[in-house]
Amino acid sequence: MINNHNRLTIHEAHRLLKAKQLSSVELTxxxxxxxxxxxxxxxxxxxxxxxxxxxxxxxxxxLIAAGDTNPLxxxxxxxxxxxxxxxxxTTCSSKMLENFVPPYDxxxxxxxxxxxxxxxxxxNMDEFAMGSSTENSALFTxxxxxxxxxxxxxxSGGSATAVAAGEIIYALGSDTGGSIRQPAGFCSVTxxxxxxxxxxxxxxxxxxxxxxxxxxxxxxVTDCALVLxxxxxxxxxxxxxVPYPTPDYTQCLSTxxxxxxxxxxxxxFVEGMQTEVETAIRTAINKLEELGAxxxxxxxxxxxxxxxxxxYIIAPxxxxxxxxxxxxxxxxxxxxxxxxxxxxxxxxRQYGFGAEVKRRxxxxxxxxxxxYYDAYYLKAQKVRTLIRQEFxxxxxxxxxxxxxxxxxxxxxIGEKIDDPLQMYLSDVCTxxxxxxxxxxxxIPAGFADGLPIGMQIIGKPFAEETILKIAYAYEQATEWHKxxxxx
Amino acid sequence: MKLSREEVLHIxxxxxxxxxxxxxxxxxxxxxxILENFEVLQQVDTSxxxxxxxxxxxxxxxxxDKVTPCLSQSQILANAPRKDGNFFRVKAVLE
Lengths: 487, 95
Description:
The complex is a heterodimer of chains A (487) and B (95). Chain A is an alpha/beta fold and 487 residues long. Chain A has 15 helices and 11 strands. An 11-stranded mixed β-sheet of chain A has the order 1-3-2-4-6-5-10-11-9-7-8, with helices on both faces. The two termini of chain A are 18 Å apart. Chain B is mainly alpha-helical and 95 residues long. Chain B has a domain at 5-43: Histone, subunit A (Orthogonal Bundle). Chain B is built from 3 helices and 2 strands. Chain B has helices at 5-14, 21-38, 73-77; strands spanning 83-84, 87-88. In chain B, strand 1 and strand 2 form a beta hairpin. In chain B, helix 1 packs across helix 2 (21-38). The chains are: A alpha/beta (487), B mainly alpha (95). Chains A and B meet through helix 9, helix 10, helix 11 and helix 12 of A and helix 1 and helix 2 of B.
């Protein structure tokens, strides 16, 4: 029997579960059935944990019968494959970690498990989260459910695709330079990158430690707030975790934007931007004005054009240091036929890492090496200061900034894979936000020839409530988020 | 600026990253291209601007020096490519 339970949002499913009109086992089976049907087309999942999920679902049904009312109890979730799951392989879509089974859960996974969540599997990604299309996955490429010949974005492309294709109710991703928001935009789902340090990074495989942040990919803004409620909190195991109280993020959701001041930074409407994207975002901002917000259209953040260079110095530098741990000794792939220790290490890394990861290790090592440190790494860190200051000044005048999530709609598989710089440019609107450590959300804001367009709403540090409110008001006034790909 | 073959090999050595001849040539070209694009940063006046390493208002976070539960030796060794009793097994460091 075919039902559409797999298309329920978290809050819809929760209502039915609580009213005993649906069981978590039924909901989980609906997702598994959908996975069986569409996974051969989209390739979003690295691991499917069906047995574990059905056990967790059964347990959740018992909890609900006993009166458990947590909004995430019994709801299936997919975890990006760079977030550690105890006893479940965590590959980072890399040959290096193909057989790695973490001995512990990431804090976010622990928190979801405590809510009675049903973990259905692990999502494909660009290797070590380095990329914008999932084409850098060493396992396989994920296909965009809106057009299978196109990329779903990256690096959390598996998470975004699975949510868009109805394989899962919601997913977790990670975002270092746009890796939640860009695929959310490309797949027409909702994706939030919280403020740096709002969500614990303990158990997230490190890429660039001053930029990485975990966040939800969901079917609507209410779900996004519900997941953030579950995962955001202080964690003593992450030394960058900030001990601020966590509000109930659903309390801020309202459809009245009266009194809110929105800035539209002109530098984000970049050269080479697709006309349909620009038109869609301008129309969406008009809608925000109708809802009561006051928009100023000609805001300038003049250091924006330098963000790409700053990012591609800082992120690879941190990555080259973080990835030094893959030496073939403690875990992961190991080249065993070497004659010496150094050869073993070099060959382990040669065969274990893919092309983009090697490129970034080389770039980062160069930027940090003697004689170049001041010209590249230190210079980038200083311009990082200017970028953050510019945002701080803008937020003296505005409650939020609104931009496109990406300059184009999803591109073709293969189109940019041989040109690293072109690939890097697809994150030009999302990178500055990580550099400044701000929260930002991408929500569906239209289509061009059937291909999704995302709108990015950027907030002050720890002002997730403001951007969720704006996103919610827009969503309730539009129908984009209800459109689903026909596959 | 153009990154020479020798420079690429030097960086690869620092990173302990083995590369094939094809990779050396490709990286020499690609990295040169990328680094050239980074030159734009030289246009920015950063005199008297302090560097930013991270974006949060925290400094020198310390923990109480207290014993807490941790992973067992067998859990830590479970993913080891080669082990010997309770140890990781590696190639000889000193010949």
